[in-house]
Amino acid sequence: MSLIVDAPNEEAAKVAERAALDEIDRLRAILSIYDPQSEVSQFSTFALGSPRYVSEELLEVLVACDWWKAKTNGAFNLLTAELPKLWKAGEVSNSIPSQDQINNILESIAKPAWKVDASYEMVQRILPLAVSLDAIAKRYIPDHTCEVAMESSDNINGVLLDIGGDITVRGSIDRFIGVTNPATPEDNAPVLLTLQLWDHSVATSANYARGFNIQGNQYSHIIDPRNGYPVNGDVVSATVISNSATQADALSTALMIFSPEEGLEIINSLPSTDCLLVCKDGSQRRSSQFDTFVYEKVERATSPTTWKEARVLEVNFEINRPQGGRRYHRPYVAIWIEDNKGKCVKTLCLWLERSSKWVQKLSRWSRLRNLDPGTMRTVTRATRMPGQYSLI
Description:
- The protein is built from 9 helices and 20 strands.
- By secondary structure, it is an alpha+beta fold.
């Protein structure tokens, strides 16, 4: 998670930060499937057919799920959690799931899992299936978190919240946001293009960050709930811009399942919503108004003369979660290549918080803090496993 607050002073910024973190914790206690005490986890244990009162937030998410399932003709379905489990088990056993196994799950998830009463206050479970809100809660939370942060003080001008590569911008912040190229998803690779967002959200789904390897073949982690198989269509990356983070996330996942033509038809039918689809052959398909958000079409990479293009080095590493607490400040990371005399010939990354004072003592990189703020980019990308990064 990355949080940027535009405020006239540090005190106001800290008030907004505290409000944002508290709201994330509050919503996590409602929507997290990883917390057995959360409301949604408890909801999955309710007796079938028994109407129960639920929180306004959980009800809102469940209603949104029903709406998106209908809007996408079943391509968006929160009951598909059993399918990834099935394919994960197939990866462990190195065997593709049987058609009977897939059909049994498809038969279950095609039915309604819950029913909301006419008063929109009570919900009853219909199917004995666990509810996974991952596909929508990760964006529902930023929508509400940014609103709470903006209202925490009269002095807050703008907020940017980036969780796992899905980004929400509210207020005065005018931010350059790169779109990861699915052909070169490394963290320091040139982006596909750059967006300029204000009061919008952007989410990206793609198959380059996660998946299943079975019998030497790589399968996408995104599974089509209509046939039970990992997606293998023409779309390899889908980026959606919307004034709703929840909508951007739901659609970016669904667009990976549709053909480019089907996806564009849905996007162009929705107000304040645009998309970029990258196809297998590298071509791009854009919705009617997407180009209004494009700041520059291509980021040009510069190749130092001391580095031969024919040589490729990939650096994969993981930043582990420190013990003893859930929340912490990310460590600074600097990775570079030097010659046999100790001279730096190429910097691969310099990651730090904007307010970090330690970098002033590192003459090799201190000048980077004075560059155009646009070079300190935020990037929308497919969600990956926590702490895993790649440089090239």
